[in-house]
Amino acid sequence: MGDELQIHKGLDGVYIAESTICKVDGAVGRLYYRGYSIGEIAENSTYEEVAYLLIHGRLPKAAELEEFSKRLKAERDLPAEVVRIIQQSAGKSDPMDILRTAVSYLSISDNEVKDQSYESNIRKSIRLISKISSIVAATGRIADGGVYVKPDSALSHSENFVYMLKGRKPTKEEIKPVEMMFMLQAEHSTNASTFAALVAGSTLADLYSAVTSGIAALKGPLHGGADEEALRMMYAIGDPSNTEQYINEALAGKKKIMGFGHRVYKAYDPRAKIIKEYLLTLQNSSSEEVRRLTEIALRGEKLMIDKLGASHGIWPNVDFFAGPVYISAGIKIDLFTPMFAASRIAGWCAHVLEYWEDNKLIRPLELYKGQIDLKYVPIDKR
Ligand code: CMC
Description:
Layout: E1 22-25, E2 30-33, E3 36-37, H1 38-44, H2 47-56, H3 62-74, H4 80-89, H5 95-108, H6 118-143, H7 157-166, H8 172-184, H9 192-202, H10 207-218, H11 226-237, H12 243-252, H13 270-281, H14 288-312, H15 322-328, H16 336-356
Antiparallel strand pairs: 1-2, 2-3
Helix pairs in contact: 2-16, 3-6, 4-5, 4-6, 5-6, 5-10, 6-7, 6-16, 7-8, 8-15, 8-16, 9-10, 9-16, 10-16, 14-15
The chain binds carboxymethyl coenzyme *A.
């Protein structure tokens, strides 16, 4: 390799664009959506408002938020074919596969899919934000043996999600964690799924194609799938007293502990702090299972920070404490990553729309290390 040529494995340290959507300050563990710290957002906002903020670039006035929420509500119901896809596969297939297929199918029923005007892409963003939540909720409900419940336009985005999932009016205890997770996972700069969406978007493929690419990339355990893996690890640990031995053995075997580490954060992920704080507020009211999972999580957190925190920059990330919180809300494990998608859809749309304002095809290079000018050998002579 020549001196001037440098390979950035995993695109580590490569900037691909300017953006005003999200700042991740990995050195000190801070996160901002359009300039507002994630702490301010989590304490004061709602998912609808966060989606507006990400897509339109500023907080809405009351009438604007009301109009935006009305448009979201109007888009919640699913085409009959999409409900059929869910009915045929829920409980048998991975909900992320169902989601990817259903979103891809949504484009077939959208007659403005090819309209690349800004107004049309805003309409499609609203449609996707609404319908992805409905797809995820319907998938969870049908997998549990329930029937498709039509959305209720009297409810907020998160309330309606829980209503469509459970088929009954949700409790405050069920809505709070869903609203919090929806806000915390809505956006995170050029993470793998957003980048995947940008790559597809940069070819000027439509928004559905971009979002389907994002969902595909989110599924993996190194990205969105880590929330499910972290909880599976806690179940495998079983009893809090096994935590230290389990983690020590995993690390000795060079295994990664899911829910820790991040490409950008070399400090405590601020979202994980908020989720942990919330989890601690549940201590007196939660089930024995949630208390046990919390104890395992706290022991695991301490051990990992002692071993790898300051020394290696490996801290808890957004996925580590999410599992016990979801379990406290009665949400099953294989819905965690689809819910991540139902939240991140706002960030994906905001980024693709922003990138299209000054589009450039994303096309990196690779350094070819194979042979050249080989002589073609006929098949019977090889
Ligand atoms: N447990 C143990 N060791 C780890 C971990 C971990 N969770 N994460 C990184 N390391 C070690 C890794 O083994 C490597 O060690 P060495 O240099 O000795 O080979 C070193 O740290 C660098 O790791 P890397 O994987 O090369 O670094 P990266 O910047 O590509 O890592 C990561 C980012 C998220 C892929 C990685 O930390 C990881 O696999 N974490 C577990 C999966 C996870 O929780 N993912 C969710 C990320 S946050 C939410 C999201 O964006 O989806």
